Amino acid sequence: VRDAYGERRIFAEGVVPERVLGGPPTFEPLVAEFAQRPGVHIVGFDLARRADGEMVVLEDNVRTPSGVAYLIAAREAIGEALDCPELTPRRIDSAPDFLAETLRSAAPEGMEEPRVVVVADGESSTAWWEHRVLAKAIGGVAATLERLETAEGRLWLRGDGTREPVDVVYRRTDDPRLTGDGGTLTGLGEAVF
């Protein structure tokens, strides 16, 4: 992804045909204007097991992978109800720590405690519960686009009469684009530009 928005060697060397990332919905030209080149920090693989036992990837979702908070909640609920001492499931309660570490690594250099905002669609989203749980677990804030503003060359989170700088945005909105079909900025695009 960094190369696709940078030197573009992946195309020049024939690794990937340029048509694959050449336009919507996979390529976002405005991202090339970001001061920091984008990278893929979080990927959600949809896995399935075939009848022969082989695991296959159905989808590699880099836009808005979800489910980890539901997985942790389900594991806790089942663990409490399950009376089977010989069964020791693999621990997954550290998943929010990995997420927090990953998001912090996306912050500008030298930032010890970056302000992370999980940008979500709010109560209209079926995943709003997960967005709030994950935001709290990683020490961040879940917020809708309406609470963000760009001013003084940076992104801010508005609260009750307050305004805090935002260092990392974890996008969990249904709006995957920065620009619409006509090239105008989407709500997400307006928030980050």
Task: Provide a compact summary of the structure.
The protein is built from six helices and eight strands, in the order ααββααβαβββββα.
Written overview of the protein:
The chain has helices at about 10, 20, 70-80, 95-105, 130-135, 185-190; strands at about 45-50, 55-60, 115-120, 140-145, 150, 155-160, 165, 170. The protein is globular and about 55 Å long. The strands form three sheets. A three-stranded parallel sheet has the order 4-3-8. With about 190 residues, it is α/β, with parallel strands linked by helices.
Instruction: Determine Rg (CA atoms, Å).
Output: 19 Å
Strand count: 8
Strands side by side in the biggest sheet: 4-3-8
DSSP summary: helix tally: 6
Distance from first to last alpha carbon:
20 Å
Classify the helix fraction into a percent range.
25-40%
Q: SSE order, as H and E? A: HHEEHHEHEEEEEH
What tags apply to this protein structure?
single chain, 193 residues, alpha/beta, three-stranded parallel β-sheet, three-stranded antiparallel β-sheet, 6 helices, globular
Write the layout of secondary structure elements.
Elements: H1 9-12, H2 18-21, E1 44-49, E2 55-61, H3 68-81, H4 95-105, E3 116-120, H5 128-137, E4 141-143, E5 148-151, E6 154-158, E7 163-165, E8 168-172, H6 187-192
